[in-house]
Every structure is written in C-alpha cells, then in structure tokens.
Amino acid sequence: MDSVAEASNISARTTSAIAHEVLHRVFGYSSFRGHQGDAIVHVADGGDALILMPTGAGKSLCYQIPALVRRQRGLGCGIVVSPLIALMQDQVSALRESGVRAAFLNSTLSSQRAAEVERDFRTGALDLLYVAPERLLTDRCLQLLQSAPVSLFAIDEAHCVSQWGHDFRPEYMQLELLGKRFPGVPRVALTATADPATRVEIVERLGLDHARSFVSSFDRPNIRYEIVEKIDARRQLIDFIRADHADQAGIVYCLSRRKVDETAAFLVEQRVKALPYHAGMDSDSRAKNQARFLREDGIVMVATIAFGMGIDKPDVRFVAHLDLPKSIEGYYQETGRAGRDGAASDAWMAYGLQDVVQLRRMIDEGDASEQYKRVSGAKLDAMLGLCETASCRRARLLAYFGEDDAIGTQCGNCDNCLVPPETFDATVAVQQLLSCIYRLKKERGQSFGALHVIAILRGDKGAKSAEKIAQWQHDTLSTFGIGAERSEAEWRAIVRQCIAFGLVDIDHETYGTLHLTQKSRAVLRSEEAVHLRRFVADTKRKKTARGRKELDPTDGLDASGSALFDALRSWRLATSREHGVPAYVIFHDGTLKEIARARPTTVTALGEVSGVGEKKLEAYGRDIVEIVERLDG
Ligand code: ADP
Ligand code: ZN
Where do the domains of the chain lie? Predict the structure, then answer.
C-alpha cells in the first residue's frame, strides 16, 4: 500500500471511529443503519453527497454527525437549508435536548434574537445553523456565512428543486450558487423522494455532478398496505380507526378542502380527536392544528396534501386516504409519514370508480400543457394499476421505483399477501361490457358514463335509471339486461379494472363517457381472456385487521412493565410541557419501552438503553431511575 492510500485509510478509520463515538455519546445509539455510516464518513471527510433514503431511515444523522465531527476538527458550523420554517423550532429543540449547539434563522425570529444567532455563528458558538432558503440567499446572510468557517451545507428536502413535484420551491433553484461561493465546503442533498427523474433534477439543478450517491431501498417494512373498495368511505374509515387505531395519531388525506372539513367534523362526532388542515384555512389556525398534532398524543389530522412535508413526528400510526392520490409518488410520500419510529403502522385507502372519473377530469380540465397532461395521465394509470393488482402491493410499489429485485416477491404484510384476492375468468362479463359500449356507439351514435352503461347491462328499471332508459329506449338494445345476475357493485369493480388495465377509456370532453380502446378488440373477438379480482363486499377488512395488540406500544411487556411504561409516559408528558417541546423530543416510545423492559436501577445502566445519550442521561437520568425504583418498590 502506498503512503497516500495508507494515510487516507487511516483518516477514514479515524473518521469512522469519531463518528461512532458521536453517535453513541450524543444520540445514544449503538450502530449505524444501512448507508448511514458510509455516507457520514464520506461527508465528514469533505465529500459531496446525494442521500436518498425513505422516510424514517435516519437522514438527519447523515448531516448532523458529519457537522459535529468537522466541528471537532475545527472546521466550523454546519448550515442546514430547510424549507420548513414552522418545523425548525422543533428540530432545533430536539438537537439542543441532545446537547448539540443548534440554532435557526428565519422570519419568525425577532431582530434581536436573529442578531444573537448571527453573533453566535461568528464567534464559533454553534455546531449547526438551520436557515430558510429565501433567507440564506440574501446578501446579508451570504456575507454572514463568509465571516466564519462553514463545515458543510445540508440541503434538506432536496426534491423541492423539482418543478414537476408539488413541493417545488423556486428559491431552491438558486442554491447552486453555494458550490461557487463556498468552494471546498462539502454539500449534501437529502430527500425521501424515490423516483429517478427527480434524482436527476437534483443533481443537475444543485450542480452536484461530483457528489457520491447513497441510495437505500425504499421499502418500509413496518408499513402494512391495504386498499379497499370504497362503499361508504366514512363508515369504513371509522371502522378502521376503531378496530386498529383508537387513540392513536394518524393522518387522513382528502382531495378537497370541503371534504377535509366534513370528514374532520364527522370524526369529531364519532369521538375521534380530529383536526382539519388545508390551505384554505388562515395560517394561524393551521399552525395551531399542526402544533397540536405534533405535541399532543393521539390526534388525527384530516388534511389535503398541503400537510405533511417534514413532519417528523415518529409515532404516526396510520395514514388513510379517502381519495385516490394522483400518482404512486404521491401515495408513497404520503403513506411514508406513518411509522418513522419503525413500529407497526398502516397505510389504508378506500377507492372507487368515482375517484378515477374525478381525477381524470381534473387532469383533462387543467390549464397545463399537453405534455404535462400526458405525464399526469400515465402516472394516474400506474396508481390505478397498484389499486387493482391482485399480487403483492409492496412488490409493485418497489418495482415502480426501479427496485427490480422486488418483482414477483411476496411481502406478507399487505392485504393481498395476507388475504389473497380471489380472481375469476371475467372474459364473458368484460365482453358484455365492451359490446354494450360498442352497440351504443354503433347503433345509436351515443356514448354514456359508467353508471348508465351498468344500468343497461343490469336491465335496471329502478327509479333512478328507468327514466333515462325509457327516454333513450335503451331497453331495446340487444345488450339490455345481459348482465342482470351481477350486482351494481360487482359491475363497478369490473369497469374500474377494465379502465385500470386499458380495456376501456374514459373521455372527459364528454363528461366521463366510456369508449373502447385498441386492447378491447382482442377481448371482443375472444382472442384474449381476462382475469379480474372478484368483488367481495367489505368482509375482507375483518381478516386484515390486526386487533389492538400488535399496534399497542406496550405489547410484549408484562403487567408491571406496562405500569412502568405508563408512568414514564406521564413523566415525559409533564417534562415536555415544562420544556415546551413535543413529547417525542424527550424520548421516543421505543426508548421508554426499552427502559420499562430493562428496569435500570442505576444511571449507568440507563445509559446503555438505545436512544439515551450523554446529555439526556445527565438531565433526566436520576428522575427516571427514581421512577423505576418507585414502581419496583
Ligand atoms: P428521516 O429524516 O430519514 O425521515 P430521521 O432522521 O428523522 O429520518 O430518523 C428517523 C428516526 O430514526 C429518528 O427518531 C432517529 O433518531 C432514529 N435513528 C436514526 N438513525 C438511527 C440509528 N443509527 N440507530 C437508532 N435510531 C436511529
Ligand atoms: Zn405483499
């Protein structure tokens, strides 16, 4: 080995040793997860990095620890660019709880407090400084950063540079200048957005061509995926919450502001602690609801997709969708907010034919370019495919993000793996549907929406359909009543699957009428068989429901362990109120559970528990040991 390689080897080893020491002393953890260790050494040694890890994988440590290591080496303060002003306070409080000298600069600070922070930066009294992007780009701030050493730049939520995503922030486009203004200062961009196109954009826009990429699997094994037929969405939602998530924190996503308000009101009526959140509310109420969600236990946030980026509450136990997301990217991002702490969590969605019709219309009616509409349409199709698949949902999700290893595997933790859906040879039913659409067009020159086509197939003379059928004399069509043996719900499921698989097209120029496609012909000519999932009326949920046990944080503890856990939680609540921080900033549920199991009776023994770092041991050690002894005594 030549001496240069040897020297860099030694430095890598020592960097790694220092990083481990910081991990243990400051954060109380014993080992790195996944790519964390490699990425941290790379950045601590001055390399640029692009870090792509799913939510909850531990991205924050990938810049926090390098900043602390470089601080020890006299290389200055780490700068974290984050778009989430409302959350900076909590992030900084959490670091301070662990003994890190952190601060933030954003528009919520008084000028006096901002001046103090600036002075602390200049005098080297800070390890990490969080800055909002628009503030960072001001001359004043750039000059400030040139007045003292900067150890690294972390660009959090780096997908905000992507103009295609809904989190786009124009200021992010200008962050490229950091590389030019601060040559030699390592930059690390981080995101949990999984799609390859966004990665390319991040590298291009931030000028990170030389950055090393650290890409993790995007699997979130603790999240259980479940997609059910929408029958009576609210009732299904409340059943789901009562069965598995009573008194637990969760997020319910709805498409429209009105539906958010209505659903929140409904849940409150049902005695669920629910709060609304959408862009139509004034910013004070929004901030208040967000703060309650973060600080109190067991709040359900009913929200539009305006809610969620950067919410690092670790114990969100479920994410429910009452409307179909527009893309798999969106679905993945939103469901990913469940279970950051690694404990069992649910991603649940109710979806129906109407969702498809509505989203197609929104895409078609928008002002966007043709190209944008085409891309959006394709993304929606992929989402439908995920909803209608009869095989493992996780495998499908991961394959979509390019993880080809997942194809054909079974995760054992999604509805399709747990209760494999029954499929049936639906060729005849689909032919009936297709020929009904065909006859309408051929014989009458007409096109109709799904509901009317289904009414014709069923020979439905019920009050609602009768008038329309009589008006158009559709009872004289040869396809009238040929599908009478199937219920309307069964037919809806068939139509939906035909749309998802491209056998039927919806046209919005004409209010959601159904049309044949290229693919329909082969089925009509009996050249191709079609297998579809069989419609099952709402009985499935009972089988995928876990019951409370698995989701109960005290699962696995004996009676006295549970009592200790409860006592620790009460202590944590009181302490977090005293400090004005969310409870999880003091200790996570997982750490409390570990304490309840280990029952440490000395401060030293408590220090061995994962999640208990030096500073917290010093601050809370005696209190906790006292609680353990009191309950044991
Ligand atoms: P992300 O930003 O990737 O969503 P976070 O940085 O918020 O994830 O980390 C998620 C949780 O995992 C945090 O509570 C963090 O303290 C914890 N964590 C991160 N790295 C480790 C580790 N090496 N060992 C144990 N816990 C960790
Ligand atoms: Zn599965």
Answer: 9-215, 223-421, 424-533, 552-632
What is the arithmetic mean of pLDDT over 111-120?
Answer: 97
Q: Which of 41, 218, 311, 340 to mutate to test ligand 1, by most ligand atoms within 8 A of the CB atom? A: 340
Distance separating alpha carbons of residues 251 and 241, to the nearest angstrom: 11
Q: Do domains 9-215 and 223-421 have the same CATH topology?
A: yes
For 9-215, which CATH superfamily applies? Answer: P-loop containing nucleotide triphosphate hydrolases (3.40.50.300)
Domain 223-421 superfamily per CATH: P-loop containing nucleotide triphosphate hydrolases (3.40.50.300)
Helix (H) / strand (E) element for 130: namely: strand 128-131
Model confidence over 529-556: pLDDT tens digits? Answer: 999 998 877 655 556 666 656 677 777 8
Q: What pLDDT score was predicted for residue 278?
A: 96
Is 57 close to ligand 1, i.e. is its CB under 6 Å away? yes
The number of the ligand nearest the C-alpha atom of 30 reads: 1
How many other β-carbons are positioned within 10 Å of the β-carbon of residue 174?
Answer: 14
Please write down the long-range contacts of 166-169, taking CB distance under 8 Å and 24 or more positions apart. 166/305, 166/330, 167/83, 167/309, 169/83, 169/133
- What single string gives the DSSP state of each residue in 459-486? T--SHHHHHHHHHHTGGGSTTTTTTTTS
The closest alpha carbon to 392, from 367, 415, 425, belongs to 415
376 confidence band (pLDDT: 50, 70, 90): confident
Mean pLDDT value of segment 36-57: 96
Q: Is the pTM of this model over 0.85?
A: yes
| Pocket lining: 53 vs ligand 1, CB cutoff 6 Å | yes
Higher pLDDT, 202 or 632: 202
- Please state, for a pLDDT cut of 90, what percent of the chain lies above it: 71
Report the pLDDT value the prediction gives residue 77, as an integer from 0 to 100: 98
Per-residue pLDDT band at 361 (split at 50, 70, 90):
confident
Residue 61 Cβ contacting ligand 1 at under 6 Å: yes
Q: Ligand 1 centroid to 606 CA: how many Å?
A: 20
Ligand 1 atom closest to residue 53's alpha carbon, by position in its atom list: 3
CATH code for 552-632?
A: 1.10.150.80
Ligand (nearest to CA of 396): 2
